[in-house]
Structure formats: C-alpha cells, structure tokens
Amino acid sequence: MNLIEELRWRGMLHDFMPGTEEQLASGMTTGYIGFDPTASSLHIGNLATIMLLVHLQRAGHKPVALVGGATGMIGDPSGKSAERNLLDEDTLRANQEGIRRQLEKFLDFNSGANAAEIVNNYDWFKDFSFLGFLREVGKHITVNYMMAKDSVKKRISADEDGERAEGLSYTEFAYQLIQGYDFYHLYKTKGAKLQMGASDQWGNITTGTELIRRMDGGKAYALVGKLVTKSDGTKFGKSEGGNIWLDPNFTSPYKFYQFWLNLSDEEAEKLIKVYTLLPQEEIERLTEEHKQAPHLRVLQKALAKDVTIRVHSEEDYNAAVDASEILFGKGDLETLKSLKEDMLLSVFEGVPQIEVDKITYAGATSVSELLSDLTGGQVFESKGEAKRMIKNGGVSINRQKLQNPDEAVNYNLLQEKYLVVQKGKKNYYLVIVK
Fold first, then answer.
1. Where does ATP bind (predicted)?
2. Is it the case that residue 11 has pLDDT exceeding 70?
C-alpha cells in the first residue's frame, strides 16, 4: 500500500488536496507537521498526529517536525472558543525541549536521505520586523480570504441561539498567516511540498499552499488526518484526571497503560490501527480473536503493550503489567517489592492513604491495634472488629495473609515506608510510616 492507501485503511485519513497522491508517487517528498509548545509534553491526541509523520517516513518520504517557538507565543484559534494566556519565552523554550525529546522516540533521525528533522519557527521569525512581515507576506493574502476560514467564522459569528460571539483578537486572526509563512519558508529552504496535521488545521494549512502559490508561483499540498474521538464523540486523549501525557512525570506508565487497557471494544478496534504499526494481517487476526472471547480483552492488551513500550519502555510496560495484577489479587510480596515508589503510588493513587509516625508504628503492641486504633479507625473501627476479620482470613499486609490478630508488628516496609493493607477482596489501604 502507498501512504494514502495505508492511512485510509487505518482510518486516519480525513482529506487531502488534489494532486497530493501524484506528488507522493513522484518520489521522496518532504512533508511537515507543526507542534504547538503550550506544554512541556505532548499528549496522546498529539501522538495520533505524530503517527502521520511516522507513516510518511515509513513510506520513504522525509518528515520534518516543526516546534512552534514563534507561533506558540500567539496561540492557534482553531477549535478554541476563547483566547488563551500567552507563554513567556523561557517557558516556551523549556516546552520545546521537552517536545523535541519525545519526537525523537518516534522518528528516525539517522536514516540517510529521508532522515527526520526538527525545526523551530522562532529561528526565522525572531529577526522578522512587523513592517517587514506586512510588506513581504501580508500583502499576498486578502482579508476576505482569511475571514472565510472556519476557525475565524466560528469566533466572530453568533451561535444558533443568537448569543454574541466571543470575538477574535488581531493576534489570533494573524495566526493563519504566520503558519502559512512557515510552509512557505520550509518550501523555500527544505523543499517541503506537503503539510499535514489534524483535520481542524485544514484552513491554516491551505493558507500556506495559497501563500506559496502567490509568493513563488509554486505548488504545494495539504493532507489532514481525522480527529480522534471517543465513542461518544468527545475529544480523545483525556481521562477524568485530564490529558493522558507522554511524559511519565505527568502521566505515570501505570496510568498510561491502564488508560489503553480500559478502552471499550469499539475504541480498541479503531485505535489499534491508529496508534500501532502492527500490519493489517495481524490486526485483523487480533480483531477476530477478540470477537471470539471479548472478556480476554485481546485488542486492549495488544494496543496497551505496543503503545506503552514505544512511549515509555519495555521495562515500564512489564512493571505496569505486574502492578495491574496486584489489584486483581495475583501479585505477591516480591511483585510489590519490585515496584518503584512512583509506580507503587500510582497503583494505589485512589485508595485511602493513612499516615502513621515512626514512633507510633514502633510502639504497636499487635497488628490488630495497628489496623484499628493506631490508624485512626480508618481500616477497622475497633480492635475487636480487626481481630474477627483477621481470624477469618480476610486481611493481608503486603499480600501476606494474616493469621494471628495478636502477632507483633514486624513487617518489611515497601520502599522503607509503605504497607499495603487489603481487607476483604476489594478494599485496599496504603499505610505510610513517616
């Protein structure tokens, strides 16, 4: 399959300009995508766009990732209902570096002629004066052309109920012109003839192709992928706690893995094509296997494994799998001991956490006292209740079932300060000894 056929089969293709397929068939084509450095990490919504560049390179073409150091100072109005706060230059530079490190995980920067490149549009805008930009660029695009873009019309037109529109600052209005110049600059300096992005970028991208035509008489092309949405139509890439980030400091490998594992069958069948590089035959085999036994979650597991390893590492993936087993009663003490502190805290993020100072812990006369009085009644309200359940075999500490309610408190603290207490099958507590 060529690039267009591959993207179409994977459900990633939304639209492309006439002549794009012929351009790609004519030989190695340089194409680029811009990434907005509004945070120091990209999220999984961005990852779907990165995969467009990955497929471009796999098809023998040259990918360029543009980190928008200049455009990040302004803010893209596409898909926004209000103007966002603008970031200072130091914050933007830190964000750019974080994004650069992440992009290097997915693209090959040492593949010869079609090796990937990263560029920063601040490099060519920093010395561009306002008057110079108006004279050299602004005169080529009419206001009527810019006003016709959906990203502009949605912000200046009243809604269906006649409510007044939020409005659009001149800064945001000019964004499409600045992004359009990016395409022109890369066309002239890198020979870029294709810009790609998510479908909400169509207006900005075609402004670039128009600018190339008017300023240089050249021909350039646009290709946009489908916006990835959840089964209910809402934007994909967020959990109840916010974005699912690619940076482990923002979203732990465990939570990242769990996100994919908990997708619906419908979402997993669609997204395994978007987020993995598994071939068609294997995806079709996994899909059929999943339909035969949906409860085994074959698709979700294959997707979670592939993406977690590529975004984080195989070690992080294995640790996430082990950690996942704990809450289902399959892990043992050795599994718990093997977890790094951040992974342990991530697994038990949603359970009650009880702090006990070291002196109190050392002075505990029995485990039943520890799990009742010394933990403020949060595990058991009384020592008698704790004794009864321990005798019935319903309590464990660090996956070791308690036998004697009067036994001494002499447990190996995980990471030298944690005890994982399980009461019954589903009730967990994390005791933190400080």
1. 238
2. yes
Same domain membership, residue 178 and residue 99: yes
Q: What is the pLDDT of residues 413-433, one digit of tens each?
A: 999 999 999 999 889 999 999
Residues 316 and 198 occupy one common structural domain: no
Residue 179 annotated as part of some ligand binding site: yes
* Domains identified in the chain, total number: 3
DSSP states along 179-203: HHHHHHHHHHHT-EEEEEEEGGGHH
Say if residues 221 and 16 touch (Cβ distance below 8 Å).
Answer: yes
pLDDT value, residue 81: 46
What is the reported pLDDT for 31? Answer: 98
Is residue 421 located within the same domain as residue 329? no
317 marked ligand binding residue: no
Q: 238 labelled as ligand-binding?
A: yes
Is 221 annotated in a binding site? The answer is: no
Output the domain CATH number for residue 113.
Answer: 3.40.50.620
Q: Do 146 and 208 contact (CB within 8 A), yes or no?
A: no
Taking a C-beta distance cutoff of 8 angstroms, is the pair 9, 280 a contact? yes
Domain that holds residue 142: 3-225
In the predicted structure, residue 85 carries a pLDDT above the cut 60: no
The answer to whether residues 141 and 207 touch, using CB atoms and an 8 Å cutoff, is yes
Residue 211 is given by DSSP the state H
Give the angle 293-295-298 at the CA atoms, nearest 5°. 70
